[in-house]
Amino acid sequence: DLLIGCILAISGNLLISISLNVQKYTHMKNEALGDQIHYTKDPLWWIGLVLMAVGEIGNFSAYGFAPASLVAPLGTTTVVANIFLAAIFLKEKIRAEHLFGSALTVIGAFLIVTFSSSKEKVFEGSEVTEALKTMTFTVYIIIEIIVLGVVLFLLYKVKMKKVVIYLLIADIIASITVICAKAVSGMLQLTFEGYSQMSYPGLYIMAIAMVVSAVIQVKWITFNMYFTAWLFATINVGEVQPKGEVSHLTDTDREPILPTDVVYHASDDTLFSEGDQQQQNYGATTDST
């Protein structure tokens, strides 16, 4: 089961990386045209969206075979793949800080995989409902909302159009998607094994939240494609997932190594943002030389 989960996660992340590069190429091609069309009218953009959907299905399925603590760090597959995809197809430069930041991301993922449990409990509907009522989950959601509110205030009121602002929004939303995906995949797994979970409202609540948060991510990922070098944006999307594992809906026996992983991820975000400050004109064509 672990092998199947890892294969699904890696394959899904590779497809997502390809899809996002296809969509970025669509935006770059559109910007080069004198008479621009909306990106949703370009068939190539829709091809990228379909590839993304297939990749996300692979990621979602992986949570049914392997623990979230093993599946989520495999998002670093996107980092490694996109370094070469962005350089080859989008002509983006590979800077030293990109490589160093990628190394920190991989180290953080390695620490999670090494020090986390290889087994975890699959939550049934009643347990998901109880988990949603716990103080830990409530505090986590409150913190997410507060941070998101602060970031949106900085974006729209202070007009702080920084790379990190857009990526933080995508990070926060993605963490919700991961938690919901793990809960839904677990309940569906139990249903397929003969223990129906269809009568529990938690299944539908988490499924709706998963879909809505995933759709919202598309908007902010699109902003990232306009706003910054795509190498940076995709690296962030690939490595955000482990940050969502603070809930009872994922691993409850996480080792103390998690803060170290967070430091590694925060460090690579800082490195990438510092390396791309010259590309912060929203809507401008990204570096293609």
Automatic annotation (TrEMBL):
Record keywords, A-Z: Membrane, Transmembrane, Transmembrane helix
InterPro entries from the UniProt entry: EmrE-like, Mg_trans_NIPA
Any GO molecular function: magnesium ion transmembrane transporter activity
Membrane association type: Multi-pass membrane protein
TM annotation in the entry: 6-23, 44-64, 70-90, 99-117, 137-156, 163-184, 204-222
Any single Gene Ontology cellular-component annotation: membrane
Family matches, as SUPFAM superfamilies: Multidrug resistance efflux transporter EmrE
Chief location category: membrane
Subcellular location(s) of the protein: Membrane
Signal peptide as annotated in the record: none
Family recorded in the similarity comment: Belongs to the NIPA family.
The protein, known as: Uncharacterized protein
